[in-house]
Amino acid sequence: MSETVLLLAGLAGMAAGFLDSIVGGGGLIMTPAMLNLFPELSILQIIATQRTSSIFGTSVAAWNYLKHVSVPKSALIGASVAALLLSIGGVLLAKRVDAEALKWLVLAMCVALGIYTAFKKSLGETDTSGTDTRRITDRAILIGGVCGFYNGLIGPGTGTLLVFGFVALVGFNFLRASALAKVSNVAADIASWTVLALSGFVLWKIAAVLIVGNVIGSYLGSRLAILKGSHFIRLMFLGIVVLLVGKLLWDLSQQ
């Protein structure tokens, strides 16, 4: 494990954190980088180690967003608790079912939400959530729970799905949706990460380098998103959906 390899891992962590802090999808960068830089590691070691850094980075992004964006506390707490609890359920179910078979469903879902977002030009540009806190909280809990379960069961694209859910079903603009998505994503990641960490899959020397890179990237990415606003995040969202569809198609073609 040379210094050059660790440096490249840190740079990959920074790029992943930057992208993930805006609209999710950091795993599209981090997972291939880890597989190439550390081919001797098992897939569980890779997932556990990179998830360690993403928890830190996403927490920094969430803190950054919440300093500038207002989100009802009941929605924050409700969505986060639901995401954490249902993520545990997803992890447990993943041991019993073939999660790979569900990727066809995820692929169809990603294509559908990409088309919907592309053709509905006003989606997420303005906030239409209203002032009914009970309605906002109930829908946030539903979205956090469903996406948390997906995170534990399959994983890729959880942050992006959270953003879309909070925009389409709650009515937040992309900036507020990203703020709530970051908090919910951290909660969901903590649940599955804990299982992996307690099983000894986290390699802390690599994780420390990734944490530094991810935190820097997450801070810079969230700052850029706050400055550019919802229109910028919407464009990034569409780009990530295209990449997710491409990744899923590639994965399915290799089966």
Automatic annotation (TrEMBL):
Write down the Pfam families for this protein, in alphabetical order. Answer: TauE
**What are the subcellular locations of this protein?**
Cell membrane
Gene Ontology cellular-component annotations: plasma membrane
Establish whether keyword Calcium is in the entry. no
Q: Where are the transmembrane segments?
A: 75-95, 101-119, 140-170, 190-220, 232-250
| Membrane topology (UniProt) | Multi-pass membrane protein
Asked if the keyword ATP-binding belongs to this entry, the reply reads no
UniProt keyword terms in alphabetical order = Cell membrane, Membrane, Transmembrane, Transmembrane helix, Transport
Recorded superkingdom = Bacteria
The record's comment on protein family reads: Belongs to the 4-toluene sulfonate uptake permease (TSUP) (TC 2.A.102) family.
Question: What is this protein called in UniProt?
Answer: Probable membrane transporter protein
